[in-house]
Amino acid sequence: MINELFGLQGKIAMITGAGQGLGQGYAINLAKAGCTCVCTDLSVERLSDTVAAIKEQGGKALALEMNVTERSSIQSALNTVMEEYGSIDIVVNNAGTEIAEPFLQVTPEHYDAIMGVNHKGTFFVMQEAAKYMKKQGNGKIINIGSLGSFIGLADSSVYCSSKGAVVQLTKTAAIELAPYNIQVNAIAPGYFLTTMTKPFFEDDAHREWIENRIPLGKVGTTDDLAGTVIFLASNASNYITGHVLIVDGGWLAS
Ligand SMILES: NC(=O)c1ccc[n+]([C@@H]2O[C@H](COP(=O)([O-])OP(=O)(O)OC[C@H]3O[C@@H](n4cnc5c(N)ncnc54)[C@H](O)[C@@H]3O)[C@@H](O)[C@H]2O)c1
User: Fold this and answer.
1) Is 87 within the bounds of a domain?
2) Alpha-carbon span 12 to 25, nearest angstrom
3) Phi, psi dihedral angles at 160 (to 5 degrees)
4) Within 13 A of 234's CA, how many CA atoms are on the CB side?
5) So what's the pLDDT on residue 136?
6) 50 assigned to some structural domain
7) Dist. CA 209 → ligand 1 center (Å)
8) So what's the pLDDT on residue 9?
9) Does the pLDDT value for residue 38 go beyond 90?
10) How many angstroms separate the alpha carbon of residue 19 from the centre of ligand 1?
11) Quick one: which atom of ligand 1 is closest to the CA of 159?
12) What atom in ligand 1 is closest to the CA of residue 95?
């Protein structure tokens, strides 16, 4: 029963931005749950630690270069997945970027850089993967939002805009892809220590502001996201679509 609900044995999962941080965690934990993980990032070299960690634990992984801002790069990676495995069951749209700066200083170049990865990247990875999932008659897409999907965060105007848009995109795609048995959901992580958030944690005032608002009393680790990504990738969530699961130790509630 538990295996029928949550088992992911033999499923093919593609994770974007899997070279470090939360994406690396999703890949390692999905592999632990039985998935063959197609780990993608800006270069294959960036993926060596992730693939080594998966193989060390006896899991299956493939490293592929994929820049989510380029449609041809997305198509080429997905072609390889189909040639290699013949299906794409799960996509975790994790690749993301942030340039923290005051609203009044944001340049069009910075705007495009953030929206290009966080929103446009998510949009077209989802669209290209969904074409294959439609043919298969099933699929699980997991997008990555943020606390900034719900609230404004200072010096993150473009980032919060992009993550708010990811939530709206998740809901719209969930409706349009439901007839093909494709579930589209999102995870909104709270604060996790990664390369992206390191500058916040290095600033004492900012770190205290973050930590003092976490009712569960600790900053998250990638293992705190494991159950959520496995749940949204598995049969256990087959009747859930267009949902955003907040994983933040209670931060947003407080
Ligand atoms: N760390 C947090 O606390 C936190 C909180 C909420 C949401 N998030 C979101 O989680 C995701 C991962 O964040 P993280 O903290 O691990 O960040 P990170 O900066 O550590 O990792 C991001 C990864 O994305 C990859 N990437 C960047 N641009 C890319 C592109 N064009 N194509 C393919 N890959 C690209 C990078 O190479 C890197 O491996 C992001 O979407 C982020 O917005 C993070």
Assistant:
1) yes
2) 16
3) -65, -40
4) 22
5) 98
6) yes
7) 22
8) 97
9) yes
10) 9
11) 43
12) 24
| 90-149 pLDDT per residue, tens | 999 999 999 999 999 999 999 999 999 999 999 999 999 999 999 999 999 999 999 999
Of 195, 172, 183, nearest to 46 by C-alpha is: 195
Cα–Cα nearest to 251, from 222, 210, 208: 210
Q: Report yes or no on 69 lying in a domain.
A: yes
Q: Which one, of 188, 190, 172, lies nearest residue 229 by Cα?
A: 188
- In this prediction, what percent of the chain has a pLDDT beyond 90? 98
Q: What is the pLDDT of residues 180-202, one digit of tens each?
A: 999 999 999 999 999 999 999 99
Structural domain including 86 reads 2-244
User: 46 lies in a domain?
Assistant: yes
What is the SS3 assignment for 220?
Answer: strand
Ligand 1 centroid distance, CA of 1 (Å): 34
Taking CB atoms and a 6 Å cutoff, what residues make up the pocket around ligand 1? 16-17, 19-23, 41-42, 46, 66-69, 94-97, 117, 121, 144, 146, 189, 191-192, 194-197
**Res 215: pLDDT:** 97
Check which CATH number belongs to the domain holding 120 and give it: 3.40.50.720
Burial of 236 (0-12, 13-18, 19+ CB in 10 A): middle
Look at the chain and report how many structural domains it folds into. 1
Phi-psi category of residue 137: left, alpha or beta, with phi > 0 → left and psi -120 to 50 → alpha: left
Per-residue confidence (pLDDT) for residue 1, from 0 to 100: 85
Place of tokens 């005032």: 205
